[in-house]
Design brief:
alpha+beta; Beta Polymerase, domain 2; 2 domains; five-stranded mixed beta sheet; two-stranded antiparallel ribbon; 10 helices; about 15% strand; globular
Length: about 325
């Protein structure tokens, strides 16, 4: 994989975005441009990644995405290789989720009670998240006008009903187990800055006597490719009520707060997969490959360690060439 200046890479992606017919190596679909729907910049970065590495891909019209000809296992191997340097820059995050944190419960027993408590906890979470983001030069996303910092009452009621039915338990227990009645996202340009912010985040929570555990998805391999850091929180309202909340830490190459980011594009793909009888395994591989391209971009742009450069210049290039020619 060639390592090019950031500006040049972005210019290339934008050129392909405006003129997809210029993309080489896609002879098998050149006659289908009229039916191929290019919707986001994430799509073009995926195509650019395939082009740079000589990866053969095919188009899935029912899902409007490209997927590797070699399939999910191939895509997953590449992605996991690229994840390593970033995961090591983020470092080990403790405490991790445990049996003890699985027993955390909201104080509220009704949807209305949880709405009230989450609104009381929202300013606390916003303050901690904003200070942590500032430490790492990141930015906090709670939706336009912070409208998504608490769940919509209708959405919350629906989620409680679903949990209650699925677990065959009374709604009261489902309410107590809701884990994201108050939530947000913090976005960073590099894993190093993310790590700095996470340390600040832990420190601020500890000072307020609140608890946090981490689910570091940079050290696991998921078939759909999704990755990030999720923090599960046990917040206290000013009146002493417990509220479980969530903060997600993301790199901007994967989640930039727009609907065209790989995270949001992959989420829409996931929704189509759930409701479609089409080739779901190939579509899941497409999601994985989209994240692979985004992680490759993040490694070039945000990670400057010698190890990351070695992965991009040598090991991944060798892996792709071997698999692609096999």
């Amino acid at each position: 994989m060639s390592i090019q200046p950031i500006q040049l890479r972005e210019e290339q992606a934008l050129t392909l975005y405006r003129q997809p017919s210029l993309i080489p190596g896609l002879e098998s679909v050149r006659d289908e441009w009229s039916v191929i729907e290019f919707t986001t910049l994430a799509d073009y970065r995926t195509l650019l990644f395939a082009q740079e590495n000589g990866i053969k891909i095919k188009y899935l019209p029912e899902f409007r995405v490209f997927t590797p000809v070699k399939g999910g296992e191939f895509s997953e191997m590449i992605r996991f290789k690229l994840m390593g340097p970033i995961a090591r820059e983020i470092g080990k995050l403790v405490p991790a989720e445990s049996e003890a944190s699985s027993l955390w419960r909201n104080s509220a027993k009704t949807v209305d009670g949880l709405i009230l408590h989450s609104r009381e906890a929202a300013p606390i979470l916003k303050g901690i998240a904003s200070a942590s983001a500032k430490e790492g030069g990141g930015r906090v996303e709670f939706g336009p006008g912070d409208q998504h910092i608490t769940k919509d009452p209708v959405s919350l009621a629906r989620k409680v009903q679903q949990k209650s039915l699925k677990a065959d338990e009374p709604p009261e227990r489902a309410v107590r187990r809701i884990g994201d009645a108050v939530r947000g996202t913090i976005i960073f340009e590099s894993p190093k800055k993310m790590r700095q912010a996470i340390h600040k985040f832990q420190d601020l929570l500890a000072r307020k006597g609140m608890k946090v555990v981490f689910d570091n998805k940079w050290i696991v391999s998921r078939k759909d490719g999704y990755t990030g850091v999720h923090a599960k929180l046990l917040l206290k309202t000013p009146k002493g009520a417990d509220v479980i909340g969530e903060i997600q830490f993301h790199l901007s190459d994967l989640c930039d707060g727009t609907s065209g980011s790989p995270k949001e594009t992959a989420h829409r793909l996931y929704e189509r997969i759930r409701s479609s009888p089409g080739p779901q395994e190939e579509a899941t591989a497409a999601s994985n490959f989209m994240y692979t391209a985004a992680i490759g971009h993040a490694t070039v742009m945000g990670t400057r360690s010698q190890e990351a450069q070695a992965v991009l210049q040598g090991r991944v290039k060798g892996l792709i060439e071997t698999k692609a020619s096999g």
